[in-house]
Structure formats: C-alpha cells, structure tokens
Amino acid sequence: MHDEACVTFLQWALPRLRMRWPGFRKVRGQVCKRLQRHIKQLGLEDVSAYRRYLARHPEEWRVLDAITRVTISRFYRDKGVFARLVEEVLPELAQLARSRGADRLNVWSAGAGAGEEPYTLAIAWEMRLQPSFSDLRLRIVASDADANQCRRAREACYPPSNLKDLPAGWRGTAFTRRAENYCLKPEFRGNVEFRVEDIRESAPPGPFDLVLCRNLVFTYFDEELQRAVLERIGAVMQTGAALVLGIHEGLPEGTAAFRAWDEHQGIYRLNPTAAPD
User: Fold this and answer.
1) In DSSP terms, which residues pair with 139 in a beta bridge?
2) For a surface tag, which of 58, 146, 197, 203 has the fewest beta carbons within 10 Å of its beta carbon?
3) Is 10 in the same domain as 130?
C-alpha cells in the first residue's frame, strides 16, 4: 500500500472513529503496516476495496479501531517527567495522603500498553521514595483497551531496548535476564493491577491521587471526545490530585478544572472546586 493511499484512507476513517488525523501523522507507518496486513488477510485488493467492505460490514469498524491503536513505549520514557514526579509530585501527594490519614497512594495509569509506564512508577517508588514513606503503600491501577497488551504487561518481560532509558543501576536491581529479555522481579510487580478497560467508555473506581494519561487521549482523540474523557478522569480524582499528559500534549482550550503544575512536563493539578464530593 502506498503511503498516499493510506493517508487518504486514514483522513477519511479516523473522524468516524472520533479520532484526529494530526495525531497519527508521525506514527502512521505502524498503523499502515497493520492495515495492509489486515486487508491482505481479508483477501481484498486494496484500501478502496476495504472501504467498500466497511460499508457492507459495519462490525468491521471495531476491528479498524483496534488496528489504529498505536503502541510505542519504553521504561522511563521522557526522563524529565519521571524526575519531576519522583523529586516533587509524588512526595507532595504522599504528604497530602498522610494528612488525610490514608495508608496508600492510589495511581491510575491509563492506556498503559505493555506496562512500561506503571512499572516505571512502581520501581521509582521502591527505589527512591518508599524509605521516606514506609507508612504508605503505592497501589497502581493500569488500564488498556487491548487485552493482548494487558497480557504482555502481566508477563512483565521486555527486550533490552525498552529499558535503555532507566537510571543507572535500576535494571540490575529490578530485573532478571531471561534469554533475550529482561523480566521484572516479583517484588516490583505486586502493587500493579492490570485491567482491560477502554477509557472512552469507563474508568476504574477511584479516587486517585495521581493519573497518568500520556500520549493517548490528547494526541489521538477528537476534541469532543477529549473533553468527555477529561470529565471522566476528573470524576475519579482525589482533591489536590495530579494529572500527567504527554510532554507534547495539552488540555482542551478553556479547561477550568485543572491548573498547571509543570506545563513543560505536562503535569497538571485538579482544582479543589472541581474534585468530586
């Protein structure tokens, strides 16, 4: 499939999936390869034939929706974000949880993929913060719409390239080598729960002290859907909770429920008046 044909198709199909083409521009290669493979499996000649197939088989839109899911991740992705979380955001949220008499810090990693993001947070907590907050337990709920991604996340084994950004010493402490992969040790996995859940439809029960929603909603979804999902996220956040977006993402214009904590790193805070009762 030529790139031009794939681009034309995506520009037609994505709005019908409540997604936006600009978010896919740089990562379309991954989607186009999947699409080409799927068209071949269906025995269709080209993307034009696939458009006609979609018209005759409305249920195929669910398949196309899954094809468009972009899976690019690694441990400690965007180092500055995790540095800010470890040095300032998590300690402040932990102190706030203490002041409420809580015995745990609740985190939601939305669109967690194969688990690199929530596991990074779990490792950082154990390596850097747990000694200072031994009275608090970190609980991470990680959700993704893709059941295969959640299965991979529970297995917790990764190629070396996925670990290249980890701080020195973390790989040796938190992982064991198994054949060509590195597998996360059980003591770093026990506080992470994976759920197959589509953020467009529902959210795990909160309240959460920290929500990470990076490189998903505010990159790929159209603005109307972004606003709906943002409202859903805010409804399960604790008073004073933090929301982390991707470093190239921003909240929809006119959003009043959140204020910037560190806008450069995509970190925001729920306004007290916006927290659920």
Assistant:
1) 106
2) 58
3) no
107's tokens: 């985190």
Structure tokens at 58: 């409305």
Residue 72 lies in a domain: no
Range of the domain at 121: 79-274
Residue 276 has pLDDT above 60, yes or no: no
Residues 55 and 162 occupy one common structural domain: no
How many angstroms from the chain centroid is the CA of residue 112? 4
Q: Give every CB contact of residue 40 below 8 A, 6+ residues apart in sequence.
A: none
Asked if residue 216 is part of any domain, the answer here is yes
Cα atoms in the 13 Å half-sphere on the side-chain side of 98: 11
Domain co-membership, 34 together with 134: no
Burial of 35 (0-12, 13-18, 19+ CB in 10 A): buried
Q: How crowded is residue 102: how many other Cβ atoms within 10 Å of its Cβ?
A: 16
Dump pLDDT digits (tens) for 166-217: 998 999 999 999 999 999 999 999 999 999 999 999 999 989 999 999 999 9
The amino acid at residue 201 is E
- Considering the domain architecture, whether residues 147 and 31 belong to the same structural domain is answered as no
Mean per-residue pLDDT of the chain: 94
Domain boundary among 37, 67, 97: 67
Secondary structure (3-state) at 258: strand
For the record, the structure tokens of 174 come out as 């938190």
Residues 220 and 265: their CA atoms lie apart, in Å, by 19
Cβ of 198: how many Cβ atoms within 10 Å? 13
**pTM for the model:** 0.93
Edge-to-edge strands of the sheet including 181-184?
157-158, 181-184, 175-178
Q: Are residues 155 and 234 in the same domain?
A: yes
In a domain, 182, yes or no: yes
Q: Which two tokens stand for residue 160?
A: 């070396």
Overall domain count for the chain: 2
